Amino acid sequence: MLVAIDCIIFGFDGNRLKLLLIKRGFEPQRGRWSLMGGFVTPDENLNQAAARILKQLTGLTDIYLEQLSAFGERFRDPSERTISVAYFSLIDINQYKEQINHEYSAEWFPLKQLPPVIFDHKEMIEMAKEKLRYKAAFHPVLFELLPEKFTIPQLQTLYEDVYNKILDKGNFSRKILSTALLIKQKDKEKNGSKKGAFYYKLDKRKYQMKFNSFLNFIPSQKIEKST
């Protein structure tokens, strides 16, 4: 029985929340879209294997990486019995896009426009999306997807993609600023409009202090599943 790791890699490019997929390089289902994965070696634990596989594809180290769940249906992999432990990670695409290893035909897909994927990878992705929604409602975890400087409209777009719903602009801005997690900058991003939007930075000290007591500004009873 083999033990594998599959990585669900979420990324944000400032406009859309996306997922990184690769073309499977061997049979069965060679050439189809897949999550990045690999097998656990005898000399590493699960977390080490996940970090190695993520670095192999993206060149990234020390980024947000969290174990999601184990998937062990008997015939999930038709070639041989394989148990997979899924992890999800969060990255800022613009910061790391040059490090993506194109040897695996890696490509970013908008979360709402994903192609068909192999085996039970769709189930893994759906579970990761639900976990991300839950965590984002109570913790400032989505800041892991943002660049050092960002605008309130960019942050709202990210939350709207995560929850697959439109949020009231004024209400969102008021609530996110009330957390006192953001530091307003003097410069503006002016690509979106003539007036422009001020940049903000995350107050990392307060971020650490409030990580487990983040203001729930998207009530759990209103969280909707993606269609």
Protein described:
This protein is α+β, with helices and mostly antiparallel strands and 227 residues long. It folds into two domains: 2-137, Alpha-Beta Complex (Nucleoside Triphosphate Pyrophosphohydrolase); 140-222, Orthogonal Bundle (Arc Repressor Mutant, subunit A). The chain is 28% helix and 28% strand. The chain contains six helices and ten strands, in the order E-E-E-E-H-E-E-H-E-H-E-H-H-E-E-H. The strands form two sheets. Strands 1, 2, 3, 4, 5, 6 and 7 form a seven-stranded mixed sheet that branches. The longest helix is centred in the middle third of the chain and has 18 residues, at 121-138. It starts with a strand and ends in a 17-residue tail after the last helix.
Structure in a nutshell:
By secondary structure, the protein is an alpha+beta fold.
What descriptive keywords fit this protein?
about 230 residues, 3-stranded antiparallel beta sheet, 10 strands, Arc Repressor Mutant, subunit A, Nucleoside Triphosphate Pyrophosphohydrolase, disordered C terminus, 6 helices
